[in-house]
């Protein structure tokens, strides 16, 4: 398999005041928390959003690992729906000392370019800031962070920066290119 040089940028907000709002998209777009841990649904979102941008790290996870991850205290999946159809999602993963990672964020390809992404990101970041309100015993959020990379969509970095995220680290690493099946094998051209 060939290798690919991948640049990964880490960004953060250190205060809820850092969060910059986004304009709501036109139409009937709603963001709803998936409150029941569902490996099937989460894997669908992961493969559908990341299939064309080389998300592969979770594809081999067995059902039990998905279930264990989703049942961790504070892990939340927020899903954007356009007229009742899943359009994308944000997965929040709390860490120690009031840190929350936006572990995954993105849109299914058919919904990109419609102003849903900025809105969903702002909504998800706001939910990261108020996560402790929904999870008694969790520390108040003091920092929200995420990473994006050169494999992500061309507008990803600008979207994060428009929402008030600031760059704090950059790394370049070689990765082996792995074919992504998308939501089903062959869904995306190679």
UniProtKB/TrEMBL annotation:
<feature type="domain" description="N-acetyltransferase">
    <location>
        <begin position="29"/>
        <end position="190"/>
    </location>
</feature>
<keyword id="KW-0808">Transferase</keyword>
<protein>
    <submittedName>
        <fullName>GNAT family N-acetyltransferase</fullName>
    </submittedName>
</protein>
<dbReference type="InterPro" id="IPR000182">
    <property type="entry name" value="GNAT_dom"/>
</dbReference>
<dbReference type="GO" id="GO:0016747">
    <property type="term" value="F:acyltransferase activity, transferring groups other than amino-acyl groups"/>
</dbReference>
<dbReference type="Pfam" id="PF00583">
    <property type="entry name" value="Acetyltransf_1"/>
</dbReference>
<dbReference type="InterPro" id="IPR016181">
    <property type="entry name" value="Acyl_CoA_acyltransferase"/>
</dbReference>
């Amino acid at each position: 398999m060939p290798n690919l040089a991948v640049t990964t940028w880490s960004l953060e907000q250190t205060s809820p005041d850092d969060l910059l709002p986004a304009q709501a998209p036109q139409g009937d777009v709603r963001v709803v928390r998936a409150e029941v841990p569902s490996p099937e649904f989460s894997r669908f979102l992961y493969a559908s959003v990341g299939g064309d941008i080389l998300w592969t790290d979770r594809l081999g996870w067995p059902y039990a690992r998905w279930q264990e991850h989703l049942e961790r205290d504070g892990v939340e999946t927020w899903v954007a729906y356009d007229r009742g159809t899943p359009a994308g999602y944000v997965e929040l993963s709390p860490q120690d000392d009031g840190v929350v990672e936006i572990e995954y964020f993105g849109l299914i390809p058919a919904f990109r370019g419609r102003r849903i992404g900025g809105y969903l990101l702002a909504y998800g970041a706001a939910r990261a800031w108020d996560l402790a309100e929904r999870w008694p015993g969790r520390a108040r959020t003091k920092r929200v962070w995420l990473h994006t990379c050169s494999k992500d969509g061309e507008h990803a970095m600008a979207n994060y920066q428009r929402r008030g995220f600031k760059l704090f680290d950059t790394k370049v690493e070689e990765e082996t290119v792995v074919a992504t099946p998308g939501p089903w094998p062959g869904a995306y051209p190679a």
